[in-house]
């Protein structure tokens, strides 16, 4: 079985599937494999990332300055650049040769649940090799119970109306961007099996707050500390425009402020 990966694939790594040193340093510029989780409850935890290619959404936000801000991983989502296929067994070998003292794997995208069967098998093989804590980063439009059983942490990023792109992608995106039933399935699974989750929202304008509250009213078994609000922006300059209001709404509602630590450390850079 194969994984369809974005161009950064498994990252950051310093060794290939045979355990041989790569000729160039990873995008992080560090001499060691791995990076840190830059967002959410596990912010700062050393991790290896697996970035899958392909997404069912086409997110594009309007900035306070009147411009547009595309998904910061559009190259892995709807404008896939240099994606490639890798056998799961080979992916496991790459991870094994780059593990070091890293105990956390983050499966991201794109949208990982478009490849639910392959993700399930990847997790199964990783956990048979060595104990790993595995996070999935998902837009929460698709729930697969069999795949969810193999995962430890659900990082859900439901997309609000501010994410709707211009035509010709607007209608399809708007139709499928929010799936409360799937979100509730993730929450229920987590509560039933002693796992954790987060609902992570991008703040771009005031209407986002109303939409978040409307969605939360339809969900059960969540706590205030499970709700994260993140400023919109793919660069430090863009983030500065939305950080103040994001902080204000976190404090008003008792939600967590979600930093974007990887942007502070590496800027708008891929593969870090």
Question: What is the topological layout?
Answer:
Layout: E1 2-11, E2 35-36, E3 46-52, E4 60-62, E5 68-70, H1 74-77, E6 84-87, H2 88-97, E7 104-108, H3 116-129, E8 133-138, H4 145-148, E9 153-156, H5 170-176, H6 180-192, E10 196-203, H7 207-217, E11 227-231, H8 236-253, E12 256-257, H9 261-266
Parallel strand pairs: 3-7, 7-8, 8-9, 9-10, 10-11, 11-12
Antiparallel strand pairs: 1-3, 1-6, 2-3, 4-5
Helix pairs in contact: 2-3
Describe this protein's structure.
This protein is α/β, with parallel strands linked by helices and 272 residues long. It has one domain (2-266): TIM Barrel (Alpha-Beta Barrel). It has 9 helices and 12 strands. It has helices at 74-77, 88-97, 116-129, 145-148, 170-176, 180-192, 207-217, 236-253, 261-266, and strands at 2-11, 35-36, 46-52, 60-62, 68-70, 84-87, 104-108, 133-138, 153-156, 196-203, 227-231, 256-257. Strands 1, 2, 3, 6, 7, 8, 9, 10, 11 and 12 form a 10-stranded mixed beta sheet that branches. Strands 4-5 form a two-stranded antiparallel sheet. Helix 4 (145-148) links the parallel strand 8 and strand 9 (153-156). Helix 2 crosses helix 3 (116-129). The longest helix is centred in the last third of the chain and has 18 residues, at 236-253. It is globular and about 50 Å long. Pathway: Purine metabolism; 7-cyano-7-deazaguanine biosynthesis. Homodimer. Catalyzes the complex heterocyclic radical-mediated conversion of 6-carboxy-5,6,7,8-tetrahydropterin (CPH4) to 7-carboxy-7-deazaguanine (CDG), a step common to the biosynthetic pathways of all 7-deazapurine-containing compounds. Its cofactor is [4Fe-4S] cluster; Mg(2+); S-adenosyl-L-methionine. S-adenosyl-L-methionine binds at residues 110, 157-159.
